[in-house]
């Protein structure tokens, strides 16, 4: 490890705290993969539920994608008390106060900018979900993987192995197979113009988020300060805060706040379920963003993009189960291709990790820590 960075198995340089053990890093990666899976599959479904039962406020839906940021404040407070308790236990004579905020001004402004861009992406995506079936919008979003790979190469010099290339190709082909029957998915009563505009907006959302993921990784690399998981949470909170502010301004201009009470009264599932859907939507989408940024911290932006892509068929199946959308044979083929691509990527990661471990053991003693030091989390 040099200059506070660590070379990942994907070949990129990702900042990582020197006091986080490999075991803790692996646990964090698994946890964030689970969060990303919940958000990636549940987010589109809960958002579509709002639209198909009478909701039509796009700015409101886009704001809900990041409105759950106060939840992170609770987590940060818990971590603060853990650090303070660990610091007192290690040295009872240490009068140095425990750090409350790790983020420096340089990093704050960079993350605030990413947050505003994320807010724009939220709107583009919400507009697409309002016009397209979940299955269609999800398959379009799968093109995000190609954009992520492209921007990861440009911004963070992502190195590609044959296994990684194979995974990207398989997942992209899977999305192309799904696209064969999109023309028959136009919802009843929706004009061709609205459907086309929703299609274009969703493609734009995929492109923009494909740029955002490597941009977050680049921000880690250029932060000029040690990146701990607490700092990652601070980054996530600031990103979501500014994204929510961006969407809230849109809500104000569009008079959404005046319409919400009336829309709740007219909602097909009832007023109570209307507000429950709002709250659950904010929580599930927060899982998505927290998981995505956590996977980047533990591995790379490309892995985050691959997980999002491989969950596409799962979202497709859930849409069929809950919303009775059609499940053509092409979707089954896409599922097989996605699982194959996912297995290919992780087999390549396994081989690289094993090779790196053997090289380390032959050149120098292991410097792994036995346990995580909570004072540096």
Automatic annotation (TrEMBL):
<keyword id="KW-0812">Transmembrane</keyword>
<keyword id="KW-0472">Membrane</keyword>
<dbReference type="InterPro" id="IPR030182">
    <property type="entry name" value="PUP_plant"/>
</dbReference>
<protein>
    <recommendedName>
        <fullName>Probable purine permease</fullName>
    </recommendedName>
</protein>
<keyword id="KW-0813">Transport</keyword>
<feature type="transmembrane region" description="Helical">
    <location>
        <begin position="274"/>
        <end position="297"/>
    </location>
</feature>
<dbReference type="GO" id="GO:0015211">
    <property type="term" value="F:purine nucleoside transmembrane transporter activity"/>
</dbReference>
<keyword id="KW-1133">Transmembrane helix</keyword>
<dbReference type="InterPro" id="IPR037185">
    <property type="entry name" value="EmrE-like"/>
</dbReference>
<dbReference type="Pfam" id="PF16913">
    <property type="entry name" value="PUNUT"/>
</dbReference>
<feature type="transmembrane region" description="Helical">
    <location>
        <begin position="228"/>
        <end position="254"/>
    </location>
</feature>
<feature type="transmembrane region" description="Helical">
    <location>
        <begin position="138"/>
        <end position="156"/>
    </location>
</feature>
<feature type="transmembrane region" description="Helical">
    <location>
        <begin position="67"/>
        <end position="86"/>
    </location>
</feature>
<feature type="transmembrane region" description="Helical">
    <location>
        <begin position="302"/>
        <end position="323"/>
    </location>
</feature>
<feature type="compositionally biased region" description="Polar residues">
    <location>
        <begin position="359"/>
        <end position="377"/>
    </location>
</feature>
<feature type="transmembrane region" description="Helical">
    <location>
        <begin position="107"/>
        <end position="126"/>
    </location>
</feature>
<comment type="similarity">
    <text>Belongs to the purine permeases (TC 2.A.7.14) family.</text>
</comment>
<feature type="transmembrane region" description="Helical">
    <location>
        <begin position="329"/>
        <end position="348"/>
    </location>
</feature>
<feature type="transmembrane region" description="Helical">
    <location>
        <begin position="195"/>
        <end position="216"/>
    </location>
</feature>
<feature type="transmembrane region" description="Helical">
    <location>
        <begin position="163"/>
        <end position="183"/>
    </location>
</feature>
<dbReference type="GO" id="GO:0016020">
    <property type="term" value="C:membrane"/>
</dbReference>
<dbReference type="GO" id="GO:0005345">
    <property type="term" value="F:purine nucleobase transmembrane transporter activity"/>
</dbReference>
<feature type="region of interest" description="Disordered">
    <location>
        <begin position="357"/>
        <end position="377"/>
    </location>
</feature>
<feature type="transmembrane region" description="Helical">
    <location>
        <begin position="28"/>
        <end position="47"/>
    </location>
</feature>
